[in-house]
Amino acid sequence: MRKQHVVTPPTDSRPSLICWICLGAIALVLANAARTWPETAALLFATDNDDLMRLVQVRDWLGGQDWFDTRQYRVLPPEGISMHWSRYVDAGIASVMVPASWLLPMPQAELLTVVVWPSLLACLMVLLIGLGTNRLFGPLAALGALVVFFTWGKLRGEFTPPRIDHHNVQILCGTALFFLAALPGRDLLRGVLAGAVTALSLAVGLEMLPILALVPGYMAMRHAFDQPGAGAWLLGYGGALAVTAPALMVGQTPAAAWGTMYCDVLGPPVLALAAAGVAATLVPVLAARVLKGPVFRILAMVVVLAASLWLAAPLLTPCLGGPFANVPPEVRTLIESRIIEALSVSELIGIMPAMLGKTLLPPVAILLLALAALLPLWRRLDGAQRSALVLAFLIAFAGLGITLLQIRAATLMVPGLPLLAGFLVHAFQQIPRSSALRLPALLVLAAATPTAVEEGVAYALNRAPTAPATAEAQTPPRSPANCRTPAAMAELADLPPSTLFAALNLGTTLLAYTPHAVVAAPYHRSSDAFWNGIAGLETETDMRRALVSSRAEYVVLCAGDTSKPFAAAVLGGAVPDWLTDITGDRQALRVYQVDPARLAAAP
């Protein structure tokens, strides 16, 4: 018998097209980081409250505050306020900041960190989106998916320096969970990784909870209909989540608080909800030989879920009102009516149509076009592509529905949206080069990019008559009128370390750039801190009430911020006798010393 020789084809050692695409995208991230570096100090002053508070929290931890103690003691001292943020994000930021401080002075190390940390997360997003989309639809589709990442302001902005709050970490976890469920092969391993990613996302925050529940629910439905690999995925997912979620809770929660029924962090209520979901999805898998067909498996899943939720009702019922369940009604009204990200689409149409259009219209355009392209191409897609697209549509539509109620939920659409954009490129590739539809399709594709949609919104609004906005429903502008500037903070240098009464959006800036304590900050676990910074500036009675309860020593007002009635009156010269104007030569700020005796005697 003649021996057969197997000829091994030569391997191509050249980088593939997707490698070049990902490297190019990472180069764009690094170029943006380099471009941002000279402006970082100014950008950090103008950034979101959460970014500044995260920086303060990392400083406090590195300065000696206990790992398990996340209270912010400089808000409403001496007790401080409870923060529901994860130390795991602090640890990630510190892993950049501490080595940087070995080479640079700490202020420069902080500036470098707020550039490097979001840029690092952006690079991970590039790899997830690029490689994941390429696996399903090829390199050109991956390029289309990355275009969404770089051109949709709502998504790009979460990964642009100096964004160091936890939202980008949660988006990254949600995107990883999506691709771990959507990609074919190694089902058990992908399930294990997906369970661990879900646990990490829950430990960081609960904003992505609807998507974290939707993905395993979808995989459970796939298993009910005998789709290959779904059972193994669910086994890995349930096992990993059951182990890692409690471990991560223990790792960031002091032992004395393990039984505290917090509804805004990974605690007993969330663990109970996760256990109910794991039980409901695993029972049909473990009893697959007995439960034949989708009807019995879905019925079993519903029964187990209902029974689990009934058993967990004592833990879950207090959380039905959401994270604001224990907030007093007057403060809850302030949050739901005065904080932009908490407003609904219907409320924002008349207040900030430009912001609404740039946030909502780009994903809606992609979603509708992808849905239109899906119908003629459905039969030409393989099983993995169909499954991934169905999951992407479910995520996008679920996120869109919640966004209609609160605009901040737009990030829920992020995990599935880039793949839908990549699918549009894939659909364009299926049009023959000789077809008369190719050029119109290309024009539609170009018009659907987020940049084109955002420019269209801006053009339309510039031509339309403008309606006056409701000032109290807007976040005060981050400008010299809002005193978030180095010059304004320097004007407080001659004050001894004190407790300052200031507007809500100035509190975190004062914490980050002065040694002073404040009595107002936008965090829902402290109703007083929320109320002080908004309602406390509206009437004399409200300010007296806030000053008495907070024991503030000075009132600090921005000279150009007249958005609150009583603050505007004081700035105009109507200073009550329990305040003494000590502004002196200050230009941006007006500073008034509180007289406790006269304040107590005021009617």
3D architecture notes:
The chain is mainly alpha-helical and 603 residues long. Helix content is 61%, strand content 3%. The chain contains 27 helices and five strands. The longest helix has 32 residues, at 106-137. The termini are far apart. Residues 1-13 and 466-480 have low confidence and may be disordered.
Structural features:
5-stranded mixed beta sheet, 2 domains, mainly alpha, about 600 residues, about 5% strand
Would you summarize the structure shown here?
The protein is mainly α and 603 residues long. It contains 27 helices and five strands.
Question: Looking at the chains present, what oligomeric state does this protein adopt?
Answer: single chain
Query: Which strand-content bin applies to the residues?
Result: under 5%
The coarse silhouette is: globular
Mean pLDDT: 90
Q: Tally of extended strands?
A: 5
Counting DSSP H or I runs of 4 or more residues, the number of helices is 27
**Helix amount, in percent?**
55-70%
Radius of gyration: 27 Å
Adjacency order of strands in the biggest sheet? 2-1-3-5-4
Structural class: mainly alpha
Describe the largest sheet: 5 strands, mixed
